[in-house]
Amino acid sequence: MNLILDGLPEEVEIAGTAVKIETSFRTGIIFEEMLSDPELSDEDKLLTMLELYYPGVVFDETTIREAIEKIFWFYRCGSEPRENKTGGDEGGDGKQVFSYEYDADYIYAGFMSAYRIDLARDTLHWWQFRALFRSLPEDTQIMKIIGYRSMKIPSKLPKEQKDHYKRMKRIYALPDRYELTKAESDLTEILMKGGNPSALLNDEGDSKQWQTEP
């Protein structure tokens, strides 16, 4: 989809019916943080997705797959699954380069300085938030930090420069708990590459109705 031409979606079509989907950027952030929660099973994470994006909606075995697929489509801002091996928040080596939780202050400051948007008070559609985040100026601290974390230090650089970049990588490294777990990487693989999310549902989950909390 084209953000400029098609606008910001407020609903998705599931089994031929328009269903309202939660569009707040805060929902997207909670969704990402939920994916990295090691205490949640894959099935718990899928159920939490439904609760986040379709509060109060009942899904059965004929609609749950499409409902989950539409969450992934919405999260990707309507874009096609990535063909490369890295997700949206990973560097070239497959490592996560920012965290909405750990880097919250830097992200907040970046939006305030670049756009005068107060993320603690203002409301943004997830697609708006992601477009603005991707376009933050290089001189904002969060973009500098992402650059340090994701860069591969060229071997031909003078020693002083290499030492500087190594030091910046150490200073701004994400804590170990933000490394991708196996469960998270499985879901991220599906999320970014268009796999089959229903493969993560067990037989018991496929045979029951799924209802989010009203």
Mean pLDDT: 82
Tally of extended strands? 4
Distance between the termini: 30 Å
Class derived from helix and strand content: mainly alpha
Describe this structure as you would to a colleague.
With 214 residues, the chain is mostly helical. It contains ten helices and four strands; from the N terminus they run αββααβαααααααβ. The strands form two sheets. Strands 1-2 form a two-stranded antiparallel sheet. A two-stranded antiparallel ribbon has the order 3-4. It is globular. The protein starts with a helix and ends with a strand. The relative contact order is 0.18.
Give the helices and strands, then pairings.
Layout: H1 3-6, E1 11-14, E2 17-20, H2 25-35, H3 42-53, E3 58-59, H4 64-75, H5 104-115, H6 126-134, H7 141-150, H8 159-171, H9 182-193, H10 203-206, E4 210-211
Antiparallel strand pairs: 1-2, 3-4
Helix pairs in contact: 2-3, 2-6
Summarize the structure.
With 214 residues, the chain is mainly α.
Salient structural properties:
two-stranded antiparallel ribbon; two-stranded antiparallel sheet; mainly alpha; 214 residues
